[in-house]
Write a structure and sequence with these properties.
Chain lengths: 149, 149
DNA sequence: TATTGTTATACTCTATAACTATA
DNA sequence: TATAGTTATAGAGTATAACAATA
């Protein structure tokens, strides 16, 4: 039998439980999205960047980093990927030649829509073991937990 | 101004938001524990392994991995760290010479208690932006989310 | 001088496979 | 043949610093 992770729940009262639980929760989410996005040749991180572009195009790389909570080096590499696949385009800004203006290509928009369709049910699937009334509450709390004032 | 992460909240309705939120939540927890544990020379992963040993000593490395949700390679390295610091001890099992019997040293127990004291308030601090009535609920939901049946 | 994006470097985490020694 | 632990390797993720171009 192959050695896997995630078979056992730990002591509920352990002070460190919250750290392990959040790690496990995060990997669950990455895997769930990954499974849906893999056929499209992208990962969650690409999907997220494309998502902020769809919502708020065009953006500089710095702005993208702020929105997806990644440092600038990571953004460079995600955009390298997207550009190599023909999904996004970097052009130097006219007004400030240091900044790159990032836009999705038509193909990028197409792939984004497909990714959106493919992953539409992922959040619901991830939350399905919570009681229906708790699902929204969990997301609200998670949002507050992740971004406390 | 140094370039940092985590300054902006993202579109609440994005399908991929749950992935980003869980990532951010996890790093928040690791950093919060890390800050308290660093003076003791350990990290959250060491604390977690020591915690399962305190609760259920002795354990094999395989059993430790199951309890802290880590693969066997990671367990080897965590125990290398703990043994090098004199906090844990590996001995070959009498009944099955393949398995190592892991126990904390007296010094290990001492450091664990100090770590426990130091990080006692971390979970509370992490949860303090939730409403008091929501804090237990969030942990219950997170537990179910991380370990669905 | 400071900022945007880039490159290089390094350190951690994770996943895999190969190896040993036992069973 | 299978398992517990070890080692080696490679791929991500993350952090830092240095750099080029520009402000």
């Amino acid at each position: 039998m192959a050695q896997k992770r995630g078979e056992i729940q730990l002591d509920q009262s352990s002070v460190f439980a919250i750290g392990l639980l959040l790690r496990r929760a995060h990997t669950r989410a990455v895997q769930a999205f990954g499974a849906k996005l893999a056929p499209l040749g992208i990962e969650l991180k690409h999907f997220a960047v494309m998502g902020v572009l769809v919502a708020d195009e065009p953006l500089s790389q710095r702005q993208i980093g702020e929105r997806v909570d990644s440092d600038k080096v990571s953004v460079v590499r995600i955009l390298d990927d997207l550009e190599a696949k023909g999904l996004a385009l970097r052009t130097s800004s006219e007004t400030d030649r240091r900044v790159k203006t990032i836009e999705l290509t038509p193909e990028g928009r197409k792939v984004y829509r497909a990714a959106h369709r493919a992953s539409r049910g992922v959040e619901a699937t991830l939350l399905e073991d919570l009681r229906p009334a708790d699902r929204d509450r969990f997301m609200v709390m998670l949002r507050r937990f992740a971004h406390p004032e």
